[in-house]
Amino acid sequence: MTAIEFRLLGPLEVWRAGQQLDVRGAKPRALLAMLLLHAGEAVSTDRLIDALWGARPPATAANALQAHVVTLRRALEPDRGNRGADGVLVTRAPGYVLRAAADEVDITHFERLVAEGHSALHGDPAGASRLLGEALGLWRGPALADFVFEPFAQAEAARLEELRLGALEDRLEADLTLGRHAEVVPELEGLLAEHPLRERLAGQLMLALYRCGRQGDASRVFHTTRSRLVEELAMEPERSLRQLLQRILEQDPTLDWSAPDGAIAGDVNGEQPAHNLPAELTSFVGRERELEEVHSLLHKTRLLTLTGAGGSGKTRLALRTAREAVGEYRDGVTLVELAPLADPALVETSLAASLGVRQQSGPLIDALKRRLDGAELLVVLDNCEHLV
Predict the structure, then answer these.
(1) Cβ–Cβ < 8 Å for 64, 72
(2) Ramachandran region of residue 282, left (φ > 0), alpha (ψ -120 to 50) or beta?
(3) Is the peptide bond before 186 cis (omega within 30 degrees of 0)?
(4) 15 DSSP β-pair partners
(5) Which residue of 190, 196, 214, 215 has the smallest Cβ count within 10 Å?
(6) 329-346 pLDDT tens trace
(7) CA distance 96 to 94
(8) 148: helix, coil or strand?
(9) Model pTM?
């Protein structure tokens, strides 16, 4: 039987063999969501009726539930008659069971990737960033988006949202460990504006700003966060956040980031070749001719520019080419995201952050020249037209 993929991290979707199944009706969809939240467990008919109709179900609720089960089986298992009790949705006292492998339900897949990413955070930050990025890529909107007003879904949606935010914070911690402080500043600013009471986000933004040479901005983040905490919760910031501010004010050298000798950002273990390319969350189909042409041109020029209309896939083509070429460059591949920048003067800072270059004395451009002199490295500058 072809595996089914169930998606709840966003609107409810069901996919089989690359095709989305048509699951219609508010009650059948809610029934499916309820069973998916307890996949592999028998959920009693009484509990299902309570979830679907609340405290005052109609007298015909039991029959209506059976009808909704039949509707779901037709949508999920059109050939069920040939499989008997081996189907996806089966009857088991005191109710029904939705049978699905762990990775067939996006929630459990997400939870597994988050756990693996968290475990890798301190020993393998590059792996942690990749795993957590893959986990976060499973989200298509608010969890259980179709059922936000249903009591059976509200607690689970809140739990998943908290888990998502924790995964985001873990991924940002991994990226900071990898020296991507300039790249994560815009994302952290947006997240802290959305969640102004999350002190871990405030601390991460303070550290990223400080490493970008923005000590004053880092201090302002602390004082803004403190004001919100005092005003809304009558609480002072945690001791760790207060200590971070003190270290920033004292310019504690242990806050600085530097790559190991001979390594670039994203290669903190010194292994070659290195790269900081994002994980591919969807398949790359076709475009063989373009890939071959770009790959060939890379060996003929030191600067190659991809142009085209907006949305034509320039970034995806560049990233796929770079991923296939990682092994051809002794010093690896590094991606520099320029889309968040509005000031061309920040290009040097972003490139330096991606390469793990620190300004010791003299202009930063001279430090970059020294790092790049003699290097065999592919640098991908994404979204640079607005900075030319």
Answers:
(1) no
(2) beta
(3) no
(4) 5, 20
(5) 190
(6) 887 888 888 877 777 877
(7) 7
(8) coil
(9) 0.67
Contact in structure between 89 and 96 (CB atoms under 8 Å): yes
Structure tokens at 38: 């307890």
Element containing residue 99 per DSSP (H, E) = none
| DSSP H or E stretch at residue 325 | helix 314-325
Number of helices (H), then strands (E), in the chain: 14, 8
* SS3 at position 95: strand
Mean pLDDT of 267-276: 52
Pair type for strands 95-98 and 89-92: antiparallel
Concatenated DSSP letters for 193-257? Answer: HHSTT-HHHHHHHHHHHHHTT-HHHHHHHHHHHHHHHHHHHS-PPPHHHHHHHHHHHTT-GGG--
What does the pLDDT look like over 85-114, one tens digit per residue?
568 899 899 999 999 887 899 999 999 999
State which amino acid sits at residue 106. Answer: D
